[in-house]
Every structure is written in structure tokens, then in C-alpha cells.
Amino acid sequence: MNNDFSNYKVFWKAFCNFIENQTMKKILIVLLAAFIMIQFFPIDKTNPATNEGMDFLKIKNTPEPIAKMIRNSCYDCHSNVTKYPFYSNIQPVAWLLKNHIDEGRKELNFSTFATYEPKRQAHKLEEAAENVEQSKMPLESYLLGHSNAKLTDAQRKELAQYFRKIQKETETNPL
Questions:
Q1: What's the domain range around 82?
Q2: How many domains in the chain?
Q3: What is the value of pTM for the model shown?
Q4: Residues of the chain with pLDDT under 50
Q5: Among 42, 40, 62, which Cα is nearest to 113's?
Q6: DSSP secondary-structure letter at 12?
Q7: Quick one: DSSP state of residue 144?
Q8: Cβ of 98: how many Cβ atoms within 10 Å?
Q9: SS3 of the chain: helix, strand, coil, percent, to 5
């Protein structure tokens, strides 16, 4: 225990010596000023308008337990109903988050799923099943702040099976 405290003392002393250096002090002041300045450039958190009749969960009559999994694990990045977390107010983290959401919506947007041609719908469902099965989605970085989005192995299997079932239905009955 005493050794742990001495490690902190050594670290603190080294940090104070680092700060006392005039060049380092100037660099830290510039970095702090830049950090404060970029806070004046927030992201646009306005979600695009939604039409429930175009939403995947509605048009595919998704059972509620599966719909809940999809909403919790997919919708913040892959729909127009994103719920922005508290850290979306802190730049530059918010910029990275916004870019991730924009890319996610571009790749697959459940809110506009009905606008996809049947062939594209089937392909997106196949990709979704593979990504869920292989634990590529939801992203680990997303799970750090969204524990309710974490899927068990059984949930992953159930969700992948559902996506594949709807994929097959879409391929055999495209309308």
C-alpha cells in the first residue's frame, strides 16, 4: 500500500516538473484553448423525419422481443431515431460519433428500409445476419456506453435467424 502511494508521489512530482517547463506550459495552454474553442462547433443532432410505414420493424411485422433487440442494439446508428448520449456534447468525440452515425445510416437505415429494392433488402438482411453472428455488430465501442445493446450468444443466434428468415421471405415474395 505504501508503495502504491509512493508511485503516485513520483508521478505527481514528474508531472509538476513537466508543467514547470515553460515550453510545456505553453503547449498545454494552447491545447486547452483549442479544446475550449472547438466546443463552439457542435454537431447537428436533428434526426431526419421518419415515416413509420417505411420502417423495417413495421413493414416486416417484427415480433416485439426481436424488435426490442433491434431497437436497443441497432437503431442508434442504423435509423433516423438516434438517441444521442451525453458525450455527444463534447468535441471532438461528437464529431467522430456523428460521422459514425452518418456512415451507419448510409450503410443500412432501418427507418427507410421500405425504400430499398427487394434485392437490396435481402442483401442488407444477409449482411446484418452475418455481422450479428460474427459479433461485428453492435460495435464494441458502442457497447462501452450502451450496456443494454449487448447481445448474448442466444440473442445473436435468434436475431441472425430472424434476419435470414425475413431475407428468404423477401427473396421468394419480393412484394
A1: 52-172
A2: 2
A3: 0.82
A4: 1
A5: 62
A6: H
A7: H
A8: 17
A9: 70, 0, 30
